[in-house]
């Protein structure tokens, strides 16, 4: 199965952690639907289940949810490099899949965490287009909005089983900033941990570079030089892929499942591409709730210390 849904016990744990029972969920979803209709620059309607996942990912704060929804639809308009032409069968994404290996794992931890893992498919390869990589990651993220039955917590594992420095210096830092802004300001994810395994000493430099626009330093665990079983202190060994001592099957097979699913949803992605903010002069003169103009400036004036 692509995504094993939470058991009753896991749902109870998640709902208790997010204090779901103190909220009238359907009423709050209706408030969001009404709010969308009142925003001239945003879509009038959207998938109700996705609104529910957004609400959970924002810990049932309506104001936070409104802000994230607005930025989500604005980014869909302003960042076509991430959110346009989203078809996993394009030559660019096919080439990326040859060098990148990753998947959202099917099973959850007992406390409702969903694990995502990524690594290089081979040691020696040409530096891929980072924007294409982000596009693929966000495609999976958007599909999860539809496929997850309820909100879950997220844990990300990045395996640096390749010469990181060789590729990092070729990456446009502006693309990294846009990616992190999307994750933090537009996607309803509750990130519990980030694990960096087989990380070279160079990872300290990388973390210092991204620290200004990614507030996860306190929850990031770096294992320098070689894979360590300390990962099992955070992630149950049995739900990991075989390559990491687990029982979830081969990572390549898990990735193939996701690629097939993305292909099956190609028509859905095409339709979703049109559900975005209208930033024409007609709507802009009515004013945006978010600080869109300042956002544009932050993209142009990126400075990396």
From TrEMBL:
SUPFAM superfamilies listed in its UniProt record: CRAL/TRIO domain, CRAL/TRIO N-terminal domain
Gene Ontology CC, one term: membrane
GO molecular function, one term: phosphatidylinositol bisphosphate binding
CRAL-TRIO domain residues: 92-252
Source organism, top-level taxon: Eukaryota
Matches recorded under Gene3D superfamilies: CRAL-TRIO lipid binding domain, N-terminal domain of phosphatidylinositol transfer protein sec14p
Protein name stated in the entry: CRAL-TRIO domain-containing protein
């Amino acid at each position: 199965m692509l995504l094993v849904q939470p058991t009753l016990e896991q749902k109870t744990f998640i709902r208790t952690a997010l204090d779901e029972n103190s909220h009238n969920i359907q009423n709050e979803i209706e408030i969001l639907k009404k709010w969308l209709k009142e925003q001239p620059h945003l879509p009038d309607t959207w998938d109700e289940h996705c609104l529910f996942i957004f609400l959970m990912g924002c810990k049932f704060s309506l104001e936070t949810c409104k802000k994230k929804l607005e930025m989500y639809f604005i980014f869909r308009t302003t960042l076509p490099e991430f959110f346009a032409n989203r078809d996993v069968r394009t030559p660019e994404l096919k080439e990326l899949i040859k060098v990148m290996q990753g998947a959202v794992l099917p099973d959850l931890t007992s406390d409702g965490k969903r694990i995502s893992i990524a690594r290089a498919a081979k040691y020696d390869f040409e530096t891929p287009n980072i924007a294409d990589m982000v596009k693929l990651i966000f495609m999976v993220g958007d599909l999860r909005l539809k496929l997850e039955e309820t909100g879950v917590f997220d844990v990300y594992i990045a395996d640096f089983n390749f010469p990181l420095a060789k590729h990092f210096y070729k990456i446009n830092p502006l693309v990294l900033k846009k990616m992190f802004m999307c994750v933090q300001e537009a996607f309803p994810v509750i990130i519990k941990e980030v694990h960096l395994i087989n990380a070279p000493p160079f990872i300290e430099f990388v973390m210092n570079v991204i620290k200004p626009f990614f507030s996860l330093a306190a929850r990031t665990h770096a294992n320098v030089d070689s894979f360590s079983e300390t990962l099992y202190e955070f992630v149950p060994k049995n739900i990991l892929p075989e390559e990491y001592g687990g029982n979830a099957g081969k990572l390549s097979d898990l990735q193939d499942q996701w690629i097939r699913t993305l292909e099956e949803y190609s028509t859905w992605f095409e339709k979703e591409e049109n559900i975005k903010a209208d930033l024409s002069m007609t709507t802009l003169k009515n004013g945006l709730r978010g600080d869109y103009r300042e956002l544009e400036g932050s993209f142009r004036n990126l400075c990396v210390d």
